[in-house]
Write a structure and sequence with these properties.
Elements: E1 2-6, E2 10-17, E3 20-27, H1 35-58, E4 66-70, E5 75-79, E6 84-85, H2 91-110, E7 113-114, E8 123-126, E9 129-132, E10 139-140, H3 144-161, H4 166-181, H5 183-205
Helix pairs in contact: 2-4, 3-5, 4-5
């Protein structure tokens, strides 16, 4: 078993299952929490992530297949998607990927799901198809505020990792997002996004 990513919520490993590489996600024990409470929280979040992953697939969004969910060990065994992280794409491939992420995000929001960690590192391109991964921070929510927070994070990631093409990538993302959620919902989310960004600007001036 090989560790490939350490995160705040859990660690990601590659392991073998019937001679195939698969992904094992483990949720870390938090020593600062009471052990009974910690176990309950990790179990609940493991179940929530697995449930959301399964639901998302039913809405037509490509995600890794789930092989096993162990609620006692708080682990999820899933398919390894062999592709390229969207953050590592460039040119037209990156542009098309961001357009597709706009669609995916809209489908999630339209079905009451907030991704919670909407970055170009959490989407994989394989055979010109985009897969959404890492729903460890996802939650069920229809709140405009939560959906705007998803968009804000994605915009910030574009600003930091793809600054040279920020405007074009953000534009195609929003175009496809609006095409799915509709103009009325889109305007509400964008208005809330502006309010959130305004809070950030005000805080930096203090």
């Amino acid at each position: 078993m090989k560790l490939i990513k350490k995160g705040a919520e859990g660690d990601i490993f590659i392991k073998k299952l019937y001679n195939e590489d698969v992904i094992l996600k483990t949720r870390k024990v938090k020593s600062y929490r009471h052990n009974v409470l910690d176990s309950k929280i990790r179990k609940q979040r493991t179940i929530r992530e697995a449930t959301i992953l399964s639901e998302i697939k039913s809405h037509g969004v490509r995600t890794p297949l789930l092989y096993q969910v162990n609620t006692e060990k708080c682990t999820i065994l899933m398919q390894k998607i062999d592709g390229v992280l969207v953050k590592d794409l460039g040119g037209i491939k990156l542009r098309l990927a961001c357009a597709e992420i706009g669609k995916i995000t809209a489908i999630l929001h339209k079905n009451g799901i907030m991704h919670g960690d909407l970055t170009t590192s959490n989407f994989i391109s394989k055979n010109n198809q985009i897969y959404a991964i890492d729903f460890g921070l996802a939650q069920k929510s229809i709140r405009i505020e939560d959906h705007a927070v998803d968009l804000r994070l994605f915009k910030e990631i574009l600003s930091s990792q793809h600054v040279e093409v920020l405007n074009s990538l953000w534009k195609v993302f929003l175009k496809e997002y609006k095409s799915i959620v509709g103009l009325e919902r889109f305007n509400k989310v964008i208005t809330q996004l502006g309010i959130i960004e305004g809070r950030g600007r005000y805080a930096r001036m203090e």
